Structure formats: C-alpha cells, structure tokens
C-alpha cells in the first residue's frame, strides 16, 4: 500500500510539470521595448519571442524573435514546432560584425535546406555583435503557422504554452557570409515549454517600426 501511494504521488507530480509549468519567463527588453517570453539554455543562449496582443490562434500572425548567443557558439537554432523536422527553423550565426539569419526546414536528420515559408526582417535595434555575444532581433511571418494538407497544419496559440526546441554547435558554419551555408550537426539539442501568453505586445506594430 505504501508503495502504491508513493507511485501515485510521482505520477501526480509528473502530470503537474507537463501540464502547468513553463520553462520560460517574461523578459522586457529595454533596448527594443518588446516584451518577450524567454528561455535561456545551459549554454547561456537566450531564445525570446514577442507576439502582437491582437494575435489569434490559427492566424499566421507576425512574431518577433530575438536570439542572444555567446560568441563561442558557431550557430544556434530555434525550432518553432519543438522538433527538428517539418517546422520552421530559425538559424543564426555571426559573420564578423554582422549577424546572419537563415530560414530552414528539415525533412530528415540532415542539413536543413532553405525554407521560404518563413520570411524574416532583421530589426536594426537589437541586432549586434560584441566581444561576448551576438544577438539578432527579427520579425518573422510564417513562424507561427506552417504545414500543408499532407503534413497537417500546425499553429502556435499566442495565448497558451507550446513546446519549442533548440540546437547549437560550437563549430562555425562553412560560409558565414552566405545564409544558405551548410553547417555541421549540433553539439546539443533540447526541448522546453514556452509560455507565449506573457509575450503579448499591445503596441507591437509601433515597436517594430521604431526598431527598423
Ligand atoms: C547539419 C545539420 C543537422 C544534422 C546533420 C542533424 C542531425 C540530427 C540527428 C541525427 C538527430 C538525432 C535523431 C535521433 O536520434 O532520433 C537530430 C535530432 C534533433 N535535431 Fe538535428 N540535425 C541538424 C540540424 C538541426 C537544426 C538546425 C536544428 C534546429 C533547431 C535541429 C534540431 C534537432 C532536434 C530538436 C532534435 C531532437 C529530435 C527532435 O526533437 O526532432 N537539428 N538531428
């Protein structure tokens, strides 16, 4: 009986962590003025997403993504559907004093090719390289809804939690100036629960405009 009760306790604790707990926190960026929901992994890479207050689930709404990466990391990637394949991948790396954003989608466990279903516009404010980090801030149309009738349509509910994933490698990409560059496999991947509901921005369009 004692064993049975102990087991039940474990199941309840696990269910609680799956349903209720987010791994992200609210982050107000003083530089750009966006309110993001952010997740920072063990390597110190910060993955941030901001959404318009008017965004609705199943709308292909514009989002802002900000990724801040320690300079020792060759490339870092965000997977909007929480897995490697069949979802938009935002890959970033430094090219000298510039930052490159590359839109990809993986169709298997090999170098993901370019993906034109997600379109990014890099915002000048919030995008920079310094001695310790590179950071990109960009709008994305196509990051919050993807797929087709074959693979199924997936959308991010801006008022709820969702699973995201990251990957990164220390090795630099092959041709940093080219956003279609090939790169080597990740050193580490991870998944987390991201709470989009704390990333709502009432003045989203004005904030995008002022950071362009
Ligand atoms: C050179 C490029 C890449 C190669 C060769 C590669 C290869 C692989 C392989 C072999 C696995 C293991 C599959 C398994 O054990 O079941 C994997 C898993 C994974 N990869 Fe990649 N990968 C690449 C790029 C990326 C990128 C750019 C991302 C984006 C963020 C990514 C995200 C993931 C994730 C999240 C997993 C865990 C399984 C899943 O959730 O789908 N990978 N990858």
From TrEMBL:
Residues 1-20 form the signal peptide. SUPFAM superfamilies: CBD9-like. The lineage of its organism: Eukaryota, Fungi, Dikarya, Ascomycota, Pezizomycotina. Keywords: Signal. PANTHER family: CELLOBIOSE DEHYDROGENASE CYTOCHROME DOMAIN-CONTAINING PROTEIN (PTHR47797:SF5), DEHYDROGENASE, PUTATIVE (AFU_ORTHOLOGUE AFUA_8G05805)-RELATED (PTHR47797). This is Cellobiose dehydrogenase-like cytochrome domain-containing protein. CDD domains: CDH_like_cytochrome. Residues 27-205 form the Cellobiose dehydrogenase-like cytochrome domain. InterPro entries: Cellobiose_DH-like_cyt (IPR015920).
């Amino acid at each position: 009986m004692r064993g049975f009760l102990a087991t039940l306790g474990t199941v309840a604790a696990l269910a609680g962590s799956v349903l209720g707990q987010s791994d992200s926190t609210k982050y107000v960026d003083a530089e750009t003025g966006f309110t993001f929901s952010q997740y920072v992994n063990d390597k110190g890479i910060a993955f941030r997403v901001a959404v318009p207050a008017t965004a609705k689930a199943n709308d292909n709404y514009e989002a802002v993504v900000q990724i801040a990466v320690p300079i020792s990391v060759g490339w870092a990637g965000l997977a909007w559907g929480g897995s490697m394949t069949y979802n938009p991948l935002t890959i970033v790396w430094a090219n000298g004093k510039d930052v490159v954003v590359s839109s990809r989608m993986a169709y298997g466990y090999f170098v993901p090719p370019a993906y034109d279903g997600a379109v990014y516009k890099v915002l000048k404010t919030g995008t920079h390289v310094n001695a310790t980090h590179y950071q990109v801030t960009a709008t994305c149309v196509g990051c919050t809804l993807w797929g087709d009738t074959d693979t199924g349509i997936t959308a991010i509910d801006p008022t709820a939690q969702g699973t995201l994933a990251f990957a990164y490698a220390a090795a630099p990409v092959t041709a940093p100036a080219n956003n279609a560059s090939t790169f080597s496999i990740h050193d580490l991947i991870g998944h987390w629960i991201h709470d989009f509901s704390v990333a709502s921005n009432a003045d989203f369009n004005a904030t995008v405009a002022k950071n362009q």
